[in-house]
Amino acid sequence: MNEFDDVVNDFLVESHEGLDRLDRDLVQLEKEPNSRDTLSSIFRTIHTIKGTCGFLGFSRLEKVAHAGENLLSKLRDGEFALDPAITTALLQAVDAIRSMLTAVEAAGNDGDKDYADVIALLAKLQHNALRAAGAAPAHSTVPLPALPAREPAPATAVAQAEPQWDPVQRAAAAASATPVASAGPADDVHRAVAGGAVTDSTIRVDVVLLDSLMNLVGELVLARNQILQHTTTQDDSVFLATCQRLNLITTELQEGVMKTRMQPIGNVWGKFPRVVRDLAHACGKRVRIEMEGEETELDKTIIEAIKDPLTHIVRNAIDHGIELPDRRTAAGKPAEGVLRLHAFHEGGQVNIEIADDGAGLSVERLKAKAIERGLVTAEQAAKLSERDVVQMVFLPGFSTAAAVTNISGRGVGMDVVRTNIERIGGTVELSSVHGHGTTLRIKIPLTLAIIPALVVSSGGARYAIPQVSLLELVRLEGEQAKKRIEYIRGVPVYRLRGTLLPLVLLNRQLKVPGAGEPDVVNIVILQADGRQFGLVVDEINDTEEIVVKPLGKHLKGIAAYAGSTIMGDGRVALILDILGIARMARVVGERCERALSKQAETEERAEEKRHTLLLVQVGSRGCTAIPLTDVARLEELPRDSIEWTAGRQVVQYRGEIMPLLWLSDEVGCERLGSDAEETLQVVVHSDGKHQVGIVVDRILDIVEEKLDIQGAGSVVGYKGRAVVQGRVTDLIDVAAIVARHGALVGQS
Amino acid sequence: MNTRQQYCTFQLADLFLGVEVERVQEVLRYQEMTRVPLAPRMVEGLINLRGQIVTAIDLRRRLELPAREAGRDPMNVVVRTPEGAVSLLVDEIGDVVDVEDEWLEAAPPTLADDGQKLIRGVVKLDNRLMLILDAERAIAAPGAEAPGL
Fold it and tell me: For testing the chain A interface, which of B36, B52, B79 should be mutated: the one with the most A CBs within 10 Å?
């Protein structure tokens, strides 16, 4: 690549960023026509593009940019105000510039289309607007020619243009370009010319380089895991200390490199104001877009993967969700609809909510459609709750365009949206109130490269199950193993707290012989596509952070695997694709009615406000319960892994230093002889950032109960008490207990 | 003007085969392997090549030769492909041989169908014949062999 190509490449990268900003700014300007900051930012961007393409000899591109700049300079000088026609014309100019840039990228020149129509339109608007403005100031009676002579000496074009700016604007430009007041005026000018957000503290890095760094870190994590496994047989203290250090550094490095690949979700959202504006205009609707949490960061690969589903959802919301202005007014709502995007981190995942205040889904029409399409019978439909019906838009049968536009609701390709999001380990939920709008909630992991997984064995080989799909584990021994598994025409099922759970035998799906203990059944309860099922495996081993590696082309087509990874002992293990296995076993996908009736069941139970509780024993007192929502994991840790720091007991856990709290101390009772035992039963609680280990005497069971909580709030650390399984049980308020220790547990 | 080409040679059942030396990343003795249930027949398993996961293809099965005798561990000829490295499992690794162009002949048309497709030519060495394996074709999944299920 020669030097000129380098310059052109930089120009392309910068200009594309500039254009994305222009889309946003122009839509913003339409809302606040008097915002000088926005106007200056737009002017600056166009000006930079014009200057650079003049320098590089892209004359057609320069002409379009120049025409746009002329119009903008009048706007900026306050000679006339922005109206929708001008905005549309400016957006057209942006599109023209964008397609010419694409031509530059592909062919090395700015194409053969001169966009005379766009230029003429821009010039005409400038005339008209000036005339409309009446007493035109003297200097503008001679409108600037639309196609002026090229600016002189290209190298100085940018610099020369600068003095045209009056100091006030320059200051405004500098202020908007650099949020932190800094440097001297010369620096500000430089920044303004460079097109805004570029600051000296950032550099551009090739994504390929970041990808290869990420791969290397993945290797390092694997090598670290191998070494750590090896250390268990060593007693050289220097070696052990070095390994410990290696462990910590690797974890920090992993986090650091992962951060370099993080991008704010605003990068995807940035184009939505434009999409919303154009689509709303096309549909004759008025829509305002509100965004919150644009700075929420996600791995670049995930950003790429959610781009299309999100755009789809946004388009759907405008096309089908938000009503026409007069219908909104008739319904007593403001004529302008609101589309609200909200992103935030929660529990190691990113949540994205997309809510509109449109018509919502009509349950009756959805039902009618479902019956018509043969997805449910009329009797079944009558029994379905509102929430079940809403979930039907995710069924593949609902995805054909005709079916959906007829029923006014969402759903064009919603099954595709769901599949795409589940492919990256995410989930989608939809809720809708008829007449008041629809909300979609998406949960996605932060990164795909390194994920927590449960390791299981079947047929003598190990497999990793991504933890996002995992709900709980059930182990049946002896008599139970025989009695609790029942068969419906040869299909095994298990009653999980009263609900029939289909069982899938991993050995049978993979066509390998079983090798587990004969009278033990291990069930991994998983969720895929909104459906729960139990995967029977030979053995359940442990949880581990694994590095996901793609499979070679010979194995890519196998639905059962999502990838492969290297375990601590250096051997390769396959990562199971839970959705794929569920489909292979026909747990999901084919029989919609079954899925629906099952959903109906779940919903009914949800309506009774059931809670899932972890029952633990603390001291000699009776039962104590911790809501399962406060539990991240259950662990058995060796007593000798406890270390002391600043008078507190901590353990090293998953690359972090995790403080330990004794629940018995917290609730003020005797420890029940557990001091003598060699292992600690630890309930790991996570607030998303920090983990706290809560030591209990014994973990008893997990139960699901309808709770009638009494005495709430009377004692700190308790949520109250309730009857659980016929016994009065104290409910622990984990958040309150952790908060009591505040700074000590790392919430500083 | 004679052009020379180097071949990495190996033994597979009673065949003496060669692959262009530039295509070969490395040769390794037996590596522990993870089997992949449901995989196409020619895939023997996955190996960990210094942190890289490599698919191992059983060349005997690919060439429809009788299975390797029990207790005899195969060796790996790791070849580069555009999609990453792939390992070919062979019986024994041989030397690298220099071959002059003129020693090369097309495979006899009497070779069985499958052999014809995968053998690019025959080299007349002093004391034996070396078959040149078309590594690309050997690695490509045969059309009929649909993956798993």
Answer: B36
